[in-house]
Amino acid sequence: MFTRPPRHPALRGVVELLWVGRAAPVSAQELVIPTGQLHLAWRACGAPIRLGAAGEQVERAGVLGGARTEAHVHDTPGPTRSVGLILCPGAAPTLFGETARALAGQHTGLESLWGAHAARLQERLDEAVADEAVLALVEEALVARRRVAARPPGLREALAAIDGGASIGAAAKGIGRSPRTLNAWFDEAIGLSPVAWARLRRLQRALRLAELEPDWSTVAARAGFADHAHLCREFRAIVGVTPTGWRARRHGGPYLRVSDGRAAIQFYTEVFGAKELFRLVDPDDGRIGHAELELAPGVVIMLSAAYPEQGIHAPAGPGGLGIHLHVDDADALLSRAVEAGGTLLRPAQTQFYGERGGSFRDPFGHEWMVGHSVEEVSPAEMQRRWDSMAKG
Questions:
Q1: Crossing angle for the helix pair 179-189 and 194-210, nearest 10 degrees?
Q2: In what order do the strands lie in the sheet with 322-326?
C-alpha cells in the first residue's frame, strides 16, 4: 500500500493520510477494526464498494465511513485498486457540511453528500493510471469542496492528552473546560464520547504493538490496559474475537491437494460454512485446477485436485496437512464434520491453555484441529499450568 500525507496546504489539519492499495486477485471479506476517525474510500477500477457481511450496501461513487465502536466486514473483490483517506478529528463539517455525530455508526454514499460531483470524480479515478495521479485527483476534489468550519478550541490538545494516556477529567482540565463540555465537543466533532475515543485509541496501540510483540500480557501493559484480562474483554467487545483469535485469522492460507476437488469444496462448505471465492476447471478433464474458499473473514484456503502426471499428489490416507483453526463453536463443528464424512480424532475438551477444541480428519487425508477460546491465558501461565500437570 502506498501512503502519504496531503500535499495541498488547504488540506493540512483536515486530512491526516491518503492511501492507494491493490487487492490480490481473489475476492474475500475484510474485518475492519475501528480507529475512531472518519474514513473516505473509493474503488479506482470500475467496481463498486460492497459493505456488510452479504455485500448488501452497494456504493458506486465512494463511501464515507463514520465513527463507530465495533468492527465491521466489507467485501474486497479482486483484483482491485482502492484509494482512500483518513480525516483529522473534527474535519467532517469542512468537507461534507455535516457533523461527525450525524455521520457516526454508518456508511454514507458520497453521492448523497456531494451529488453529481461524486460521480464525476469516480469517472476520473477509474480512468487514472498512476497511483500518484489518483491521489492528486482526490486532493483536487477535496480542495474544491472545502469550506470554512470552526472547530472547538482546545479539541486538538484534549485529543493529544487522551492519546497520551490522560484521563478524561485531566484532559478537560488541561484546556480549562468541564468534562461535560468536552463530552459535547467530542460528540459533535468526532461522533464518539471521550471514553469511546480513548478505548479505540488504546486498542489501536495494542494492535501496533502486537505486530512485534508475541506476548499479549506485555502488549496489554504497554498499551495502557489494566491487565491481560482487560485487553481480552476490550478485544471481544470491539473486534468480536479474542486477541489470539484475531492473530490466528490474520495468518493461514494452506494449499490442499485433494483426490476430488468438487467433493472437497462441498465438504468444507457443509462443515465450515465456507464461501467459495472462485474456481478454475481443467478444460481437458473437468478436474478442479484451483479453488479458493473463505472459511472465516480473512481466512482463505486454496485447493486443487491431484495431478500425478505433474508430480502433484493428494494424500492416499492419513498424512496430509495439519491445520489449526479458531472457530465459534468447536463442539458443533466437530459434529458437522463427522456427519459430513470426516473421522473424529479427538473429541472436544477444554485445555489448560484456555481453548476448548478437538480434531478430525477430512475424507481427503487432512487433519483439522479446531477450537474456540474459553479463557485468555498468558504464555507464562500456560507454562506454569503445564509444569503443574507434569508434576501430577
A1: 70
A2: 322-326, 367-373, 355-361, 343-350
Query: 339: helix, coil or strand?
Result: helix
| ∠ Cα 53 54 60 (to 5°) | 100
> CB of 18 within 8 A of CB of 88?
no
Question: What is the enclosing helix (H) or strand (E) of 63?
Answer: strand 63-65
Mean pLDDT by 10 residues, the chain (392 residues): 92 94 59 91 79 66 92 69 92 93 94 93 90 94 91 91 91 94 94 95 93 85 91 90 71 80 95 87 88 76 88 82 86 96 94 91 93 82 87 78
Cell numbers 480525516 label which residue? 87
Burial class (CB in 10 A: 0-12, 13-18, 19+), 148: exposed
In this prediction the pTM is 0.67
Contact 276, 353 (CB under 8 A): no
- Distance from first CA to last CA of the chain, Å, rounded? 52
Rounded CA separation 293/281 (Å): 15
Q: How big is the chain by its Cα radius of gyration, in Å?
A: 24
Closest among 65, 101, 103 to 187, alpha carbons compared:
101
Q: Are 155 and 23 in contact (CB under 8 A)?
A: no
Spell out the residues 6+ positions from residue 310 whose beta carbon is closer than 8 angstroms to its own: none
Q: Which amino acid is at 92?
A: A
Amino acid sitting at position 292: E
